[in-house]
Each structure stands twice: as C-alpha cells, then as structure tokens.
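Anyone opening a protein record will find just a pair of labelled lines. A complete record is shown below as an example:
=====
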Amino acid sequence: MASIAYITDGHMLELHRLDRRRTINFWRPSASVNFRDFGKGDLLFFLVKDKAYTYRGEKGIIGYGRAASFHSGSVDTMWKNYGVANGYETKDAFKKALCRVTRDHSLPEKISGIILEDVIFFQMPIYLSEAGMKIRSNTESYLYLEEDVPLKLLEFGRDRQDLWSETDGFQKHIDEEQLRYSLYSALSTVTEPEFPESTRRTLHRCCNNYLRNHPEASFVQKSTIELYTLEEDRLQILFPRSRKVDDRLWYGQALLLKKEIEKHFPYEAKITFSFLNEDGTLTECEL
C-alpha cells in the first residue's frame, strides 16, 4: 500500500472542512491520471504550506483521504461534474486557483482528479519530522511516504481530531484506516500462495460472485483471490474455497497474516478469517 503527502491549497481544504465534506475531488493541474505505485485504496495526506500550518519552515499535514477513483477532463467538465467538491465556491474562483498553480499561469486544457473518500481533518497540523521523516525543501507537489510513516501519522491524528469530528465518527475512521493499513503492511511481508492459473481463475470467480451481493467486501489490495470486510473494530478476511486447494494452506496463510497484522496494529481488534464457499456461504476458519 502506497501513501503520498501532496502539497495542497489551505483555502481549498478549509472550505471542505467547514462543509464537513467526506468525499472530495482532489484536482491536479496535470492531465496525467496515474501515479507510480499509487492506486485505489491508498492514502493521500494533505501537506499545507500556508504560514498558519508551518513550523520552523516545515509544512504541516492537516488531514487525509482514501483514493476511490481517478479521472481527467476539461476544467468546465470538472466543475460541471463536481462543483464545490473541487474546493471552491464558484467556478471563477476554481479557475483562478488553477491559473495560480500552472507554470505559465494560464488555464490548462485538461486536468486530472482523484476522488477521495472518508476524508478526515486534524485540528492541529502534524509534521513529518514527528514521524521521523524529512521532507526536501525543493519538493514542489508530492512525495511518497516511507513504509511506517502513515501509521504514525494516523496515530498522531488520534490526539488532534477536528472539533466537529468528535461527534462524527472520527475515532472509528482512524481505527479503520489503521486496521486497513496494517493489513496491507502485513501482506507486504506475507507472500500470497501460488496456484496454477486455472485454479486462480476459479478462486477469483468465487470472489467475484460473492462481491455481487456483498458490496461491503473488497479485494485485498493487489490480490485477486482474497477479500476483506472492515466494520468498526472487526477485520474479516475471506479465503475462497475450492476442491483443488487444501484448507491447510489457507490456515497457514491466516496464522501468518494474523501475526503480522497484530504487529502493525497495536490496539485490540477482532481479526477473523473465514472460508468463502463456492455457494457463497461462509465458514469460519478457527485458528
């Protein structure tokens, strides 16, 4: 799982904060949609250079969102589709903001955007130096965060919640993001079992059939044969069952994942594993 810190307009974020917006269109002046090693489910932290959020010259992080989708289009199309979710109250203000950040201060023909969901703001900024990471002074747009930094930022965020977030599920969102990130971090150290291509297709089909009726489930990132659900303090991982796969293989995978997840997530949480049967039912995988 990749995470980036993106230098962002503080005025734009303030409007999102005041509107209590949980889903925003995070626009970029570049027409390119894709980042290297950054995709759906990854976290984007808002790094703000405004003086109100800097300390000893260091930019502060005042929130984050989770990437849901990527898109591009003309400025007019972006405003028509997302309006104030772009972070400005009027189309004219939006265009002026774009002109300020382009090299020749002119309106680009095409821009890109990232739909960010579950957006959270902090009452006080967090600095990357607090998480043990240095930021180069010549960073112009964004930087990739080191592996353990996102979890540290989320942990610091627990104590710096925005005032209106106290009654808006702030703690629940932080816990869920930490659990989700712990799962992805665990998967970076636990290798997914190898299967013949025909078996993998069968397992993938089993997962897809389940997803049609259970939108709350998602593929574990960069996997096409393992699903997860996350509800409050319960993380459930689903292993698709097949007559061609020995259950003992999944038991071994579950034990390794549980150990690594608990290593990354320091709080009490219920982590369960279940077999996803071919008929769509679940059978708990008791460890």
About this structure: The two ends are 26 Å apart (CA to CA). Residues 170-187 form the longest helix (18 residues).
